[in-house]
Amino acid sequence: METVKLTIDQKAVEVSVGTSILKAARRVGIEIPTLCYMHLEDLNIEHKPGGCRICVVEVQGRRNLAPSCATDVAEGMVVNTHSIRVLNARKTVLELILSDHPKDCLTCAKSGNCDLQNMAIKMGIREIHNQDIAAMSTYRTDFSPAIIRDMNKCIMCRRCETMCNEFQTVGALSAINRGFMSVVAPAFEMDLEDSVCTYCGQCVAVCPTGALTEVDHTNRLIRDLSNPAKTVIVQTAPAVRAALGEMFDMEPGTLVTGKMVAALRRMGFKYVFDTDFAADLTIMEEGSEVLDRLSRHLKGDKSVKLPILTSCCPGWVNFFESQFTDMLDIPSTARSPQQMFGSIAKTYFADKISVKREDLVVVSIMPCLAKKYECTRDEFKVNGNPDVDYSISTRELANLIKQANIEFHSLPDEEFDLPLGESTGAGVIFGATGGVIEAAIRTAYELFTKKKLDSVDFKALRGMEGIREATIDFNGLPIKIGIAHGLGRARKLLEDIRSGKSQYHAIEIMACPGGCIGGGGQPLHHGNSEIIMKRMEAIYREDKNKPIRKSHENPYIVKLYEEFLGKPLSEKSHKLLHTHYVDKRKKIIYI
Amino acid sequence: MSEYTIHLLVCGGTGCKSRTSHAVAGNLKAEIKNQGLSDVAQVVITGCFGFCEKGPIVKIIPENTFYTQVKPEDAKEIVEEHVVKGRRVQRLLYKDTKTEKIVTDAREMERYKKQVRIALRNCGVINPENIDEYIARQGYEALGRVLTEMDPQQTIDIIKKSGLRGRGGGGFSTGTKWELTFRNKADQKYVVCNADEGDPGAFMDRSILEGDPHSVIEAMAIAGYSTGASEGLVYIRAEYPLAIERLKGAIKQAREYGLLGKNILGTDFSFDIDLRYGAGAFVCGEETALIHSMEGKRGEPTMKPPFPSVAGYLGKPTTVSNVETFANVPPILLKGHEWFSSIGTEKSKGTKVFALAGKINNVGLIEVPMGITLREVIFEIGGGIKGGKQFKAVQTGGPSGGCLTEKHLDIPIDYDNLIAAGSMMGSGGMIVMDEDDCMVDMAKFFLEFTVDESCGKCTPCRIGNKRLFELLEKIAIGNGIPEDIERLINLGNVIKDTSLCGLGQSSPNPVLAMIKNFPREYDAHVLDKKCPAGVCKALMVYEIIAENCVGCTACARACPVGAITGERKEVHTIDTGLCIKCGACMDRCKFNAVIVK
Amino acid sequence: MAKIKNLADLRKLKDQLQSGTKSGGKSEHAEELVQVKIAMATCSIASGARETMNYLVDELEKRNIDAVVTQTGCMGYCYAEPTVEVKLPGRESIVFGYVDHQKADEIIEKYIKNAILPEGIIPVNYQKINE
Known about the structure:
The structure holds 3 protein chains of 3 kinds. By secondary structure, chain B is α/β, with parallel strands linked by helices. In chain B, 38% of the residues lie in helices and 15% in strands. A 5-stranded mixed sheet of chain B has the order 13-12-16-14-15. In chain B, strands 2-1-3-4 form a 4-stranded mixed sheet, with helices on one face. A 4-stranded parallel sheet of chain B has the order 10-9-8-11, sandwiched between helices. The longest helix of chain C is centred in the N-terminal third of the chain and has 14 residues, at 7-20.
């Protein structure tokens, strides 16, 4: 590899051709401040529009300052990253950004966790000159079921645009207007709710300010917990236990299942249950559906649609409902674990504890923002009463625990309540990309072949590669599995299905990078995608430590079918645990 | 048909008129009548010759004799000697101030040669809607020669040696740019003509496209051959419908003659041109923003490198050149690079088309060799300042340039000299300002434009320019403090230093140059709260002169905000706190009692 | 229009056009005709040059004057639009400015018919390069 020698702040450095000044500086321990720059290595995203102009540096012989994130090194280059010219420029540029930014840090959702706030602290900005005559670019705040867009706080870093268009290929956001009033928004500045937004929340995950935040249900939860007339129960997603600890300064990848349960109990939830239980339930239903389609296909039934697609990710469901409406009969009809849980909780469990449906409040803790929207879908309500009342994100839970002044570190490890708290390893791995289909295989294999698996670990299905495939041997029958995480990759697989090229029998799709562990509601990774890797390792660790690792062996699942549902795909199962999809194509707006 | 064999043209321009040119004409007519030659010699008043300091001017045709500083008393001698006897009056002949040579034929006058029309060679000469007229003037001959007698490198070498630099404002060596694209290997390359011409007041490119579209078409084909491109695109602003129409028509005719399309002139070179329209964005004149606009993306500039010659339109090597640059290419190839580089200065060869606008008599399009001075352009070719007012400044380079003042008038115009003087060549707009123009107001005018046209991608331009504008407004309404001027300078310099593209890098130029060249005017606004030029309304104070006021109450009744008080037949007063400076009182007063300070 | 097959043909065409007519292929004895050119750029049109041109074409025909009237691009005298250039056989061309119907009429009656110069001549301030 050809290399380049240069000098940065009088330190000699040698790097390969094509390296940016920013990266070269890191090699010699110089951390040039950045704002709009974002590098997610595992996702192959290097976002360097060179727009904020915070990372500018002085390059000898160059007339103006150079943006270090987007300028490649050259042989013999002499760079100065902290001359007074650079300092003056950086401070002035930052002051400009602040002059067009609301000053409500005290009540802003991002306070303490905001890249812009941190930059202002670092650069010691004490005064915004002429703020009295400074116009501000203001916009209508957009409240959708899951995401809040407060574009007064947008600094035009364009990270959300990159995630939405390049990575997710959803295309809900792009820059509109020009000059001072330019902002990132859906076309015609329509509400997110009216756009093709899937609420995957990847934009929220990368926004450096409080412009994009999630809908916060913390106060609503506190009200419900304080209401003696309500019985409030909670379900927790697998991905939460692998990341919650980060909000309490624990190492990424620390499993905090026991402490999480203890904290929830202390906050006043009557019953602390586990979404993983419902994940096992999902496997029963979806696995049976897979086998049903498979056997009909093997018998020669031409009307059967293959591949079958997983349907537990609401962001992914929104995606195909708005952009692939010609294929609504291909995904599985099984509801997501969150919704299956709610459905069973408000029927089976409500009966068990003799509480009326309307007095039971089901709350879910999710790594996901689309789950907030999923709760509101009409299909998941009975007489207007939702199966899951609302969903709160990992971040909201952590904030709530801190607000309650609960010392997280010193909590004992506690167990989930029963019967909806028992889960298998298959349920846990739902949190990682490849986990859903692996869980499904563990059950489908045994049900189909009537044989016991030697090993339940299907390592071929695991990993961070965007699109993965594997062929699983079902006792002589090769079953082709496809996996994609990130909607851009999902699109590729969908287009293959559309054109008839797809060779898969089953495909698992997750909207978020890494699966749910990389969800929009998780602790912010601020660009460090290694954190997602560590969470993934934690998920598989939990699975390995579980005594039971196959969904159909969960005794409480077995009991649920015996006592209540009958069998998978029964009429009752269909009514409570399955759904249908809607054509969500938006009407075209004529101006 | 008349029997006139000789015509005496007397300059009737304002300059000469004030110096009695009409009396000259009158005397000449009288003398001719005396001599009984009224049917043979005609005296006629014409428009301005642009030679005001040597007026009154009398030009005699058909032999083109040019008399200067003619007095009414000279009429007798002119008629007796020249008209009757055919002998020129030597003492009145034009004497070249530099060479001291007496010029007998006006066509030999240096000033007549001041304009050298290369890019505009066919404008005003041919019918742009008829390709035959272009061909009759050696049109497409350059393309023919290039295709049959030269290889791409040879063509590029000629352009390089000629010294032609980008006329859009960048001033980059055209030959070098073409060579960079030529060197990059790809399966498809493009030639793009930048016809976005966004500078307010600039219309050089429009005139070339309206008057001689084939010169651009031919040059693009030559560029295609030299760089290895088979497709050309003209990005033309939608606000130029006539230019679009003429260009479309020209392309159609060229295709019919086989001068565009497959196997041009029997060679294996194929080239065709497509049009793309702008949508009202000044920033799309920047080459990367232009390319993205053509690709259907948001018209925003992106970082360079990569340069378009490496990865441009659709990621392929692309040459982007300006209309005027292209218009210069065929003559260079026909007449040789030595001819072209013999015109101009050492580093800036050839000519430049300027659009003269503002407070100048001869508003219009001129093409002059590099090295000519501003004084010659404004006072000779331009005919001087309108209304005989005092010259104050000239803005070159539009909203990206700086103002040049009295002390810069003798600078030879070229790319580097203008930058050294704190301005730039830009695309060629020249806006002349006089004593009635306010330098704070003018800075606001240019900045308002760039604030509007900023694409919004980078912080310094998006927010910084807006803040600069707000500061100027603050100063213009009388709320300025001395720190504001320091702030303008610091902020302006940071914007220049950190902006992503040329728009932001040059938008503070007008205000920085005006503060530098007119510091006292800025101080007057900030410290004295006064506008010396009388433009900034908020700083004007309306007053009633007691001596002149008769108390008729007309002004008080005209005032829309009731700011004037006074009894009938008593002196009235204006409450400056309420006054909105609409001027209605001044319009109404029949006694000249209302003044503005 | 037939395609021009090669450089030699192009040159031949040019020669034909130059010798045949200087005003661009319209009629044969151009030297003997009055040539009238009207600037027809955007500023010209905005000042009424189209009306001027139509008037000249109609009137010259009505008054039985053999003339070739063509449009051309910007001559550079933008402050004096509409501008008209008239070349009488054997004489140098003269440019007139501010040519409305009245002035056009004057140009026809005085100059084209009688070689009497009306007022409003715009002295040219540049040379034209002829190849």
